[in-house]
Automatic annotation (TrEMBL), chain A:
Residues 1-163 form the Transketolase-like pyrimidine-binding domain. This is Transketolase. PANTHER family: PYRUVATE DEHYDROGENASE E1 COMPONENT (PTHR43825), TRANSKETOLASE-LIKE PYRIMIDINE-BINDING DOMAIN-CONTAINING PROTEIN (PTHR43825:SF1). Pfam families: Transket_pyr. It comes from Catellatospora bangladeshensis. CDD domains: TPP_PYR_DXS_TK_like (cd07033). GO terms for molecular function: magnesium ion binding. SMART domains: Transket_pyr.
Automatic annotation (TrEMBL), chain B:
Pfam families: Transketolase_N. Residues 19-211 form the Transketolase N-terminal domain. It comes from the Bacteria. This is Transketolase.
Length: 290, 225
């Protein structure tokens, strides 16, 4: 996904003089060719993430469309107040593009993990959040985010599904059943499909958890049983589902990354297993709940 | 416009103003900026080629509001209901509610980063005439975010940026070696002036040179004295 971002972003800078990119060293080498051609619109501020967002806000105040990019933990966690105040509170937007989703950086430990990034962004009004599950979804999502001025968070991961679904802004059913609706966000689709094999459930996929497709949710949740499987903190979208279904009896199971600092390394697959997000763990949780 | 026109307006505001010392500390610098320096027009507040003034030190905006009202950005009647339930004027300014206000501020340490981005955005669009002025307080410099912006603006020679630091010696641990040195070590030009001397402030602002950002440290009486 990171390569797709670099390729698409470089093309967009070439094509649209309103586009600007702000970096904080991360991926600077990959963007060097386009930075040399457009030094006024591709800026590496060094390892200064607060400034990166402040600069993005200032660029937007002059009418440009800024994109800021780094690891999620630095882009979102460290610069949270700048995101809160230097963008939407000023009446401007930006596109924030992260890498290092949740436990992608498992060998680096908790300092390089941000499973809470989407929940942090979700505390702020008006944001669109894209969580692509395949590199083929990155280019259309990024290109669509550029012509307007609203705030957009694009969360890239090294965990991927087998198939790209460009049309998954809304809940897209990929398997039909009657006992429950299982919503898989982004790269959770592949383990969810494996975990639910043979179960009588509907599996619906989305790469855009904000705004959440509540209309589709209501239409697909006829059984009253909804399981959310998100690749970031468990329960991040629970409040949206609860509100959307507040007029009918329902049961909600929220699966995702646990609120725990594991103090552990290993592979992303190791961390998925520890959080119960591998196919075995997901199947156990779903069948117990059903 | 004469400063005597602003002082009665400022007096109207002080009823519930919680930061009166910080409001008055900025008055003369604001006066000089809006009277002699800034190329801004209340009839064209969105002119893309206007100078930008960013009040980073959003605390105590009474003087700022009074000067904006005196310059005609909004009716002086607005001053009579500071921070009221229906008032657009709060104890920290909101750019979406107050004409002429370039940034919403209050939380310290945001203005200089936004100012650097604004200057870069103008440059990227070929708008080389507008200058970007950012007003900070000496205590506000405690925020590390300022130093990210100081270092980057200096390293890149962002010469359309001018910072003004109101020094009323309110930083908890002071600035050993002087405030100006915090900027000059990163390549800024700097001058320290009497923050109540209008001619000195104007002369300090005029010392900005091509190739480097500029800072004017305006010393005023110590806060609380």
């Amino acid at each position: 996904m990171r390569e797709a971002f670099v390729d698409t972003m470089s093309r967009l800078i070439e094509e649209d003089p309103r586009t600007a990119l702000v970096l904080a060293d991360i991926s600077a080498a990959a963007f060097e060719p386009v930075a040399l051609k457009h030094p006024d619109r591709v800026r590496n501020v060094g390892i200064r993430e607060q400034l990166m967002i402040g600069v993005a806000g200032g660029l937007a105040l002059t009418g440009l469309r800024p994109v800021a990019h780094s690891y999620a933990t630095f882009l979102i966690d460290r610069a949270y107040e700048q995101i809160k105040l230097d963008l939407a509170h000023q009446g401007v937007g930006a596109v924030l593009v992260s890498v290092g989703a949740s436990y992608d950086g498992s060998t680096a430990g908790y300092t390089h993990m941000s499973p809470m990034d989407v929940q942090l962004i979700d505390t702020l009004p008006g944001w669109t959040v894209h969580v692509p599950g395949h590199s083929g979804e990155v280019a259309p999502l990024l290109a669509a985010a550029m012509p307007h001025d609203d705030p957009v968070y694009l969360r890239l991961s090294t965990q991927v599904n087998d198939i790209a679904y460009a049309d998954a802004h809304l809940l897209r059913p990929v398997r039909h059943g009657s006992r429950a609706l299982v919503v898989a966000v982004g790269p959770m689709l592949a383990p969810v499909l494996e975990a639910t094999r043979g179960l009588d459930v509907t599996v619906a996929y989305t790469h855009t958890p904000r705004p959440f497709d509540t209309t589709g949710l209501r239409a697909l949740a006829g059984s009253g049983n909804v399981a959310l499987v998100e690749p970031y903190l468990a329960g991040t979208s629970a409040h949206v589902v609860s509100e959307a279904l507040s007029d009918r009896a329902h049961r909600l199971l929220s699966l995702g990354v646990g609120r725990v600092d594991l103090h552990a390394y290993g592979t992303p697959a190791d961390h998925a297993r520890r959080h119960g997000l591998d196919p075995t763990g997901l199947r156990a949780a779903l069948t117990t709940w059903l | 416009m004469a400063v005597i026109e602003v002082e009665p307006l400022l007096t109207r505001l002080t009823g519930d103003e919680k930061h009166a010392p910080s409001a008055y500390s900025t008055l003369d610098v604001l006066w000089v900026l809006y009277d002699r320096v800034l190329r801004v027009d209340p009839d064209r507040p969105d002119d893309p080629d206007r100078d930008r003034f960013l009040l980073s030190k959003g605390h105590g905006p009474a003087a700022y509001y009074a000067v904006l009202a005196a310059r005609g950005f909004f009716p002086p009647d607005w001053l009579d209901d500071l921070a009221g339930a229906d008032s657009p004027l709060g104890h920290h300014p909101d750019r979406l509610r107050v004409p002429g206000v370039e940034i919403s501020s209050g939380s310290l340490g945001h203005g200089l980063g936004l100012g650097v981005g604004t200057a870069l955005g103008l440059r990227a669009q070929g708008r080389l005439a507008p200058r970007v002025y950012v007003l900070l307080g000496d205590a506000e410099l405690d925020e590390g975010s300022n130093h990210e912006a100081i270092a980057y603006a200096g390293a890149t020679g962002l010469d359309t940026v001018t910072a003004l630091v109101i020094d009323n010696q309110s930083a908890s641990h002071g600035w050993p070696g002087g405030i100006a040195s915090r900027f000059t070590v990163h390549g800024w030009t700097a001058v320290t002036v009497d923050g109540r001397d209008h001619d000195a402030i104007a002369a300090g602002l005029a010392q900005a040179r091509e190739g480097a950002p500029h800072v004017v440290v305006a010393r005023v009486e110590q806060k609380g004295i």
